[in-house]
Amino acid sequence: MPILTIAEAAKQIAAKKLSPVELAKTQLDRIRRLDPQLHAFLLVTEERALADARAAEARQMAGSRRGPLDGIPIAHKDIYCTAGIRTTAHSKLLENNVPAEDAHTVKKWADAGVVLLGKLATHEFAFGGPSFDLPWPPARNPWNTEHFTAGSSSGTGAAVAAGLILGGTGSDTGGSIRGPAALCGIAGIKPTYGLSSRRGILPLAFTLDHAGPMAWTAEDCALLLQGMAGHDPLDPASVDRPVPNFTADLGKGAKGLRIGVARHFFETDHRASDATRKGIDAALDFFRKEGAEVRDITLSPAADYHAVGYLLMITEAFTLHAPWMRKHFHDYGELFRDRVALAATVSGPDIVQATRRRRVLCQEMASAMAELDIIVSASQPGEAPKIADLPKWASMEKPSFTMPFNVTGFPAISICTGFGEGGLPVSIQLAGKPFSEPTLFRAAHAYETAMPWRQKRPAMAR
Fold first, then answer.
1. Which residues contact 303 (CB under 8 A, 6 or more apart)?
2. Which listed residue (131, 152, 153, 427) is catalytic?
3. Would you say 42 and 78 are in contact if contact means Cβ atoms under 8 Å apart?
4. If 0-12 CB within 10 Å is exposed, 13-18 middle and 19+ buried, where does residue 173 land?
5. Does the structural domain 6-303+352-461 have CATH classification 3.40.640.10?
6. Helices marked H in 118-234 — which ranges?
7. Active-site pick, 19, 176, 197, 427
8. What residue ranges in 272-424 does DSSP mark as E strands?
9. Residue range 156-199, pLDDT digits in tens
10. Which run of H or E residues covers position 403?
């Protein structure tokens, strides 16, 4: 069976041309064959998957499907709590942790009829990786298993790219959805802060954490986000507002969109690779030809956004983990404990100043977007590096392209723009105003459907 997108599988299931049970069995077979090379899964829930698939098939035959996600095989990043199913955060500290309740978004997807294939690798507590001193190895990039996936939604990126799952969950505190989406050549969206509930998702930094989907295409991400988004009164950051139809603008093209390019982010502040810049320029040419207005904009240096976001991230993470660290310091992996323990040196005035500067940066970006629909930047600096070559403090060496949109909480999506000299994916990042996800999906879908990149999978997956 060819690897299907969620949209393709949903249409075939609705037309009774595809059995959810046969689809689940196909995916489980792919996991058995390919995951020993990828380490994308920490746990495969075969019995649960087949039970979910049989229930979806019964609804299919009875004409009572719950919607486009009914019968779709997915998996969850292993910081999403799953009732009765081990949830470890890829850490020795939670090696035998079995939650009593599902995360809010896990339940929403289950209610929509998804087929749960299992739990996916992450960086330890969504921050410490890639680590080789944990109970499970780090995930590998399916385009070349010697290379990095980015993190922390590493298993989701690898599993989607290799076709082990049709979609999955990610979390994004400084780029943990968009980074793996970029390096694994898939689509991943960090929604607006508060759009998707984080209740039941093991936190990293409360004011920066976002929950969102990852899939092969922007269209599939829109379908998955439709099943995730919505107010949760038990998440204090959750926004109480109507959920739009995220697929409503697909097919409308790019005509009339107003696009601002934060060119200095990826040409001066942190110069991206030639292939990455070439891909971005080609995408901008496409948008111009489609009738979009494209112009350069200037924001504060990327280093300003990164400094604010990184300092707040490690201090919020230290607030959460300090009680455990005092008792179980050496049970953490080296990368997580060293990165987070650094926050013990941060002073109260440092945090106050970072919080003040964050407000200024939020106002700056809101002003810049007043007459724009989309801000364009890079997602990652280039192709995936070798996993063995990453230094401990890599995330502090150069400013992140993704952190600005965690600091502001604005939505942002990463999509593939082709391949670099090493044959690995490169990407572009599209960001929008708060709650403008339909516009981002519209632009991303217009580009994806006009380009050949979605037709090419990693060699191991063909």
1. 269, 399
2. 152
3. yes
4. buried
5. no
6. 154-161, 178-184, 218-228
7. 176
8. 293-296, 374-377, 412-419
9. 999 999 999 999 999 999 999 999 999 999 999 999 999 999 99
10. helix 403-408
One-letter amino acid for residue 305 of the chain: Y
**Pair 345, 108: CB distance under 8 Å:** no
Residue whose C-alpha is closest to residue 259's, from 425, 450, 444: 444
Q: For the chain, give the number of residues.
A: 462
CA distance 140 to 76: 17
Residue 215: Cβ within 10 Å count: 28
Cα-based distances in Å from 395 to 123, 129, 310 = 14, 11, 9
Beta bridge partners of 215: 167, 187
DSSP string of 261-301? E-HHIIIIISPPPHHHHHHHHHHHHHHHHTT-EEEE---S-
Other CB atoms within 10 A of residue 291 CB? 11
202 vs 221: CA distance, rounded Å:
22
In one-letter notation, the amino acid at residue 355 is: T
Burial class (CB in 10 A: 0-12, 13-18, 19+), 29: exposed
Determine the Cα–Cα distance for residues 120 and 79; give it in Å rounded to an integer.
9
Whether 176 is catalytic:
yes
Question: Nearest 5°: CA angle at 221, between 220 and 225?
Answer: 120
Residues 97-151: pLDDT tens digits? 999 999 999 999 999 999 999 999 999 999 989 999 999 999 999 999 999 999 9
Quote the DSSP letter at residue 433.
S
Active-site residue identified among 77, 119, 190, 433:
77
**What is the Cα–Cα distance from 114 to 171, expressed in whole angstroms?**
19
pLDDT digits (tens, 9 = 90+) for 438-451: 999 999 999 999 99
Residue 388, SS3 per DSSP: helix
Question: From CA 458, how far away is CA 144, in angstroms rounded?
Answer: 8
- Domain-wise residue ranges, the chain: 6-303+352-461
Residue 459 token pair: 């060699």
**Does 300 participate in catalysis according to the annotation?**
no
Contact at 8 Å (CB) between 95 and 139? no
**77 a catalytic residue:** yes
Angle at 392 between CA 413 and CA 353, to 5 degrees: 65
